[in-house]
Each structure stands twice: as C-alpha cells, then as structure tokens.
Amino acid sequence: MNTDSEGNLALYTSASANGRPGWVEHFESQLKDHPAAKSYPFASVDPSTGAPKVRYVVHRALTPHSSILLFTSDIRMNKVNHLEKSPLAESSFWIDETGVQFRIAGKAYVVPPDADKSDSSRTAAQGIIESMGTQGDEKTVDWWIEERERNWRDGISGHLRATFARPKPGTPLDQCHVKPEDWTETIKPDGHTDEQKEEIARAKSHFTLVALAPETVEMLELKVVPNRRTVWTRRDEAGEIKWDVQAVVP
C-alpha cells in the first residue's frame, strides 16, 4: 500500500485485476505483514436482550472466490445460538504499526459440522451456503466440508483441538463429570486406539466453521496526512456480486 501518495479512489478500486473486491488486497497485505492482527473482536447480537456480545476470534482464511472471512468455533458456544437467531455481525482489525483499521460488517453463518452425515444435513448446509452469496466452488457443500477438514488438520493446534472434547463451555465446574486437571491437553487429528478415536470423534462433532460474509468494509488510515477513510459496499446485481467504493471524511 502506498501510504505516502495523495488519497484518491485510484488507490482503492471497487475490484482488483483478479476480480476480487478492491479492499481484499489491502486487507490481506496488512495481515500478512502483521500476523498479530489475526486475533480480532467479533460482535454478535444476543437475541434474548438485543445487546451486542463481543469476543476475540482468530482469522483463519479469506475464501478465494467469495472473500468471506472464516474462523473456527465450538458449536456449543453462545455466539452460535446468536447467529442462528440473527446473522448480523461485525468485526474490527487494528494494525498498530501502520495505523490502519478495518471494520467489516455483514452476516455471519455457522456451517453445520454434520453436513456430510445425511441428506437432510447436506440440504440444510446448502441453504446456509447459498445465503452467504458464495461464488465459484464455494457454492458447493463439498468445498466447505473440505475446508473444515483442512482447518481441523492443519489450521489449529493440538491443544485447541482438545478443547472441543471438554464439557460444554460455560458449564459450572462443580457440574462437570471430569475435573479440569484430568482434561486431555492435546489431541492429534486422527487416533489409533478406540479410546482416542472416540475422543476425537466427540471433539470433532463440536468443531465448526463460522463464515462472515461482508456487506460493508471500511478502511481507516491514520498514519497518512491527510487521514483517509474508504468504504466499500456490496450489492447484488442480477445474481452477480459487485462492490461500490466511496472515500469519506475520517
């Protein structure tokens, strides 16, 4: 990114040469150069109170065709219930070294972990995937099944895998059948013994992908003079996703 040049929309187009939204190149380059920013706040809406609920998650990927943000979650977490009731969500990334902030708002969807278990589960997953406005291979359930498997094997640590085998998050400790000191600390993607396979199957049944489909993306740059703020807005034009870009007052 050329932060010394004069702010204008020539730097921030609606789409890049490869057809992806113009904000993607800036977003990916910032995270590549500053990986600590991959931990970010993600806010959902508590349907019982209408209040926002925020927690930190870890950015896992930006899908190649649809530019959808992915992170992993335990299917038993409160945010899953929130998103099933209302998909409205927002995230924010701050890169201190460059003085750049991204605000990404849209709808977030939980991809069912059992999408490959039955025809009905696959049909339900397909409906969710279509709601995201996916493009290319990402329109298929198989793509999401493979992406979940890739994250299970290569995207998370053995310690994080083991957390999915623990009691439901938020359960009072005095109601847990297994004491915290007896919880498994790490597990591999696959097991060899029946006991290992059973524990891994239990953990994996709780492991899911959450997909945030952006509708507006805002980039604020505070280390350039004058400061810059650019907003991209997504629209659906006859089934094709397009992005409008507008420079606004910071």
Automatic annotation (TrEMBL):
Coiled coil spans: none
Gene3D superfamilies xref list: Electron Transport, Fmn-binding Protein, Chain A
Domain (Pyridoxamine 5'-phosphate oxidase Alr4036 family FMN-binding): residue spans on this chain: 22-111
Top-rank lineage group of the source organism: Eukaryota
Protein name, as recorded: Pyridoxamine 5'-phosphate oxidase Alr4036 family FMN-binding domain-containing protein
InterPro entries the record matches: Pyridox_Oxase_Alr4036_FMN-bd, Split_barrel_FMN-bd
A molecular-function term among this protein's GO annotations: FMN binding
Organism ancestry: Eukaryota, Fungi, Dikarya, Basidiomycota, Agaricomycotina
